[in-house]
Amino acid sequence: MDNLYKYTTKEILNKSFRDEDGGSIGVNARTANELFSAVFDETNGRLNFQLEDIEDLAISGDLTVGGDVEVNVNTTIIGALDVAGALDVAGTVEADGFTVNGVAVGTSSDSYWSTATGGIDYSSGNVGIGTNAPNGQLHASSATVAADSAGTLEMFRLSRPINTNEAFPQAFAIGVGTFKDADTDWGPDTRVDFKLKSGASDNTATDVTIMSLLDNGNVGIGTTSPTTQLQVTSTSSASPRGIIIGQDSNGAEAGLLTFIKNSESPADNDLLGYLRFQFYNDAGTPELITGADIGTQIKDVSDGTEDVDIYFNQIVAGTDTRVITLNGGNVGIGTTSPATSAKLDIDATDGALLVSRMTTAQRDALTAVNGMIIYNSTTNQFNFYENGAWVVK
Questions:
Q1: Domain map (residue ranges) of the chain
Q2: Spatial distance between the Cα atoms of 80 and 65, rounded to a whole number of angstroms
Q3: pLDDT at residue 37, rounded to an integer
Q4: C-beta separation of 105 from 99 below 8 A
Q5: Which of 199, 252, 270, 374 has the fewest C-beta atoms under 10 angstroms from its C-beta?
Q6: How far is Cα 41 from Cα 49, in angstroms, rounded to an integer?
């Protein structure tokens, strides 16, 4: 049975339909050419009413529906809309209030969700999750936490299953929280963690924090408490960890690491940049020790005569010691200022220069040039190459 009734508007104005309990279903059509249909849906066991050729629908009182509602036109309700089932609207709906399954869904056209903190709120073009006062287009807020609590709370998450019905989905999350700075001050220090779900973890395991950003400008990779602008840390001993700078091209260029002294007021002896190698010793409370430095220092900033030293420092018997200095093409060992006329300047009171030692046969196999010095272990003598021949003095 498809259509129980089908009348023109003029006929409907003088009729009413009665249900099994004797109640009436009133119909108020607007124009004479509108057509009203009552259609019985045998599949769902319900009676559907349809007003055809209508662009807008206006209801002057409250509308309460015990089942689903499907509306394909713009609808204005001067009262309350209470729907116990599903509400499917192709156009726009304006009402003094919406109630779906007994839950209020906003009180005006400017608030489409809950206005209470902890729900989802819309205000002046901004959407708030957990806040009814969003100050951005999308603002998510959690419950308050203790001021001295470290760690982050997940605020954003993307995930997808690896396979159908896969129990361990791939996931990316962003957490927001606090960190404890060097002054043991907890707030208002902000930390943001970027997290990934480990492929070996189960669905309930804690995500792996890949990178952390602190509000002091520090970035940590592998650590949530970086102490400098970029700190890369690994706890894995499976293979060497670090930074690789590569050049994926066939040209002459290569990977580049640059240290720049961003100052418009440079001065002689300013440090330009250095690489530092550190470790912890075995003291009762382990101490962080600088084992070696490779550094650069500006010796002269004058235009046209710029000069830079490269130095190598290492800790020797617990003391930081300058071992090599490169200056103006000269090399100093044990001195920070090699003599300008010496390509190699060795300054030491506890060691000497040890030249190459070899046999006469090994000496004669060299492509010798004037000025060479060796110690001949066959004759136990110093040999000098001068004027095209080896001589002994």
A1: 3-103, 153-232, 271-346, 357-392
A2: 11
A3: 56
A4: yes
A5: 252
A6: 10
4 pLDDT exceeds 60? no
Q: How many Cβ atoms are within 10 Å of 125's Cβ, its own excluded?
A: 8
Mean pLDDT for the chain?
75
With a CB cutoff of 8 Å and minimum separation 6, the contacts of 75 are 56, 57, 58, 59, 89, 91, 92, 93, 94
Q: Residue type at 311?
A: Y
The answer to whether residues 67 and 75 touch, using CB atoms and an 8 Å cutoff, is no
Q: Which neighbouring-strand residues pair with 155?
A: none
Contact (CB, 8 A) for 150 and 137: no
For the ranges 121-135, 195-209, 219-233, 344-358, the one whose mean pLDDT is highest: 344-358
Identity (one letter) of the amino acid at 349? T
* pTM check: above 0.70: no
Segments in the chain forming alpha helices (H):
9-13, 360-364
Contact in structure between 306 and 331 (CB atoms under 8 Å):
no
**In this structure, are strands 373-376 and 357-358 parallel, antiparallel, or unpaired?**
parallel
- Residue type present at position 233: T
Q: What is the rounded CA–CA span in Å between residue 46 and residue 101?
A: 19
Is the pLDDT at 56 greater than 60? The verdict is no
- The single-letter code of the amino acid at 163 is N
Between CA 10 and CA 16, with CA 12 as vertex, the angle to 5 degrees is: 150
Residue 139 above 80 pLDDT? yes
Comparison of pLDDT for 86 and 381, the residue scoring more: 381
Q: Which residues, in sequence order, are bridge partners of residue 390?
A: 385
